[in-house]
Amino acid sequence: MSLLTHVLACLFGTGSWVAINGMWVELPLIVPQIPEGWYLPSYLTVLIQMANIGPFVITLMHHFRPGVLDERRVVYCIAVLGIIATFLLAFFWKNTVTIWGNLHSVPLLILCFLLSVVDCTSSVTFLPFMMRLCPQYLTSYFAGEGLSGLVPALVALIQGVGVVRCHNVTVTVSLNKTLENSTGDTEELQAIYQPAKFSAQIFFLFLSVMMVVCLIAFILLNHHPAVARAKKKDLYFREELTPGKREEVFSLHTQTPEQKPMLNPFESARREPCSSFGRGTYSNSEVAFIFVVLAWVNALTNGVLPSVQSYSCLPYGNQAYHLAATMAAVANPLACFIAMCMPIRSLIFMCLLTVFGTGFGAYIMAMAALSPCPLLVHSASGTVVIVLVWIIFVLSLSYVKVIIGVILRDEGHSALVWCGAVVQLGSMVGALSMFPLVSIYGLFKSGDACNTKCPM
After folding, report:
1. 323-338 confidence digits (pLDDT tens)
2. Who has the most CB within 10 Å: 108, 146, 277, 305?
3. pLDDT classification of 452: cutoffs 50, 70, 90
């Protein structure tokens, strides 16, 4: 395997969600300077779901006009759009427009929508493109996809976004004593956000550079001689093989006895009739199971739990929140590396690992529901536990996502297209289900970083 191709696949993957992930981690710096304030996250959630029109159109094209759409052209278009949008964001994110007498950040919202289209469409174009490379490079792509969340988080951490200090502030209050009113001074702690080490403009320019790197990696994956040689060395890509022979060699090349998918370890050699899905390795029930798990895992990791991360972590302190966000982002590429070394394709193991990760997700949701006074809120062990729970949650479910991607990659191009579509569908359902609970009904309560008092 070519190390260069692994690196290029990883860099290509970093462009998948880097723009929107960057927007989320930069919110504490942006929100105080725009008229929408903390309503911006709600707007951003809606814009991301509206942007699913991109994956929807691509999926319909593949379904009704198979073989007509070349995802390489789409990747070029969305990569260039991502570069332009992030570059413009650096200069126009603070500009406002008066609509019906009120100021609105129209340029910011339009550019966020365009970036959402870029990132959502990458799910149904980047993955199918990886079919053109050897199967081993898919895990490198997933590692890069994980880095698309980690790198902006680390840069925001260096930038100092959202760092809060508690200061004593003298406040004048009115006192009502018998029949006369008087005023007096009292001291209380007030949360003050510290200034960032560099501006949001520099941060957005950095995101634009990352999109440029993604585009360059994609160009090299298409045209670099080393990548072409790697294809020729792999039996599956030898042009002299007939399609039937190629399928046979590919099956032998990618499946080992230890990697056989199974629902029952004691199952006999006789299997149910294969479905028409992909190469027909899986029955209809197994295909349905794989896609249900994929939708569930992405709903939790991309929609449900991220919407309550601040509620689950901030009661333990600002440091706990930043540690959980950063270490969870590290867990994603780590899961890809583990999947590269130990690709366990057993559907039973996948099911058990999904249940395991969902259990940790339930603990996170419970702590968010108990905010601002969750369990162990006054102890250092509470911080350790919530950070570890976030790491294990992301690590286990990210491994499931990678293994499903590897399985579907073996099923063919259309399987990866549907993989991307189900990823977006699960993420959309998760985000939309949490939006009214968080933003409309206010079921989750956040405490003051300096003044919240909880019973011991």
Report:
1. 787 787 778 778 877 8
2. 146
3. low
Residues in a beta bridge with 98: 103
State the DSSP string of 422-440.
HHHHHHHHHHHHHHIIIII
Do the Cβ atoms of 344 and 407 come closer than 8 Å?
no
Cis peptide before 372 (omega within 30 of 0): yes
Q: Which of 147, 145, 141 is nearest to 330 (CA)?
A: 147
Crossing angle of helices 53-64 and 106-122, in 10° steps, is 30
- pLDDT higher than threshold 60 for residue 246: no
CA distance 320 to 386: 8
Q: What is the DSSP letter of 255?
A: -
CB neighbour list of residue 10: distance below 8 Å, 6 or more residues apart: 140, 141, 143, 144, 147
Q: For residue 226, give the nearest of 2, 12, 10 by alpha carbon.
A: 2
The maximal CA–CA distance of the chain, rounded, in angstroms, is: 100
pLDDT in tens, 417-437: 778 788 888 888 888 888 788
In angstroms, rounded to a whole number, what is the distance separating the alpha carbons of residues 395 and 407?
19
Classify the C-alpha dihedral 18-32-28-157 as positive or negative.
positive
CA 54 to chain centre: 17
- Confidence (pTM): 0.71
Q: How far apart are the C-alpha atoms of 366 and 456, rounded to whole Å?
A: 19
Please give the Cα distance from 129 to 148 (Å, whole number): 18
Phi-psi region for residue 34, left (φ > 0), alpha (ψ -120 to 50) or beta? beta
In this structure, the dihedral spanned by the alpha carbons of residues 317, 318, 320 and 323, taken in order and rounded to 10 degrees, is -170
- Residues 1 and 306: their CA atoms lie apart, in Å, by 36
Q: How far apart are CA 232 and CA 352, in angstroms?
A: 38
Phi, psi values for residue 102, rounded to 5°: -120, 145
Residue 302 DSSP code? I
What the block records as the tokens of 153 is: 């988080």
**Chain centre to alpha carbon of residue 6:** 21
φ, ψ (nearest 5 deg) of residue 19: -65, -50
Tell me the residue type at 170: T
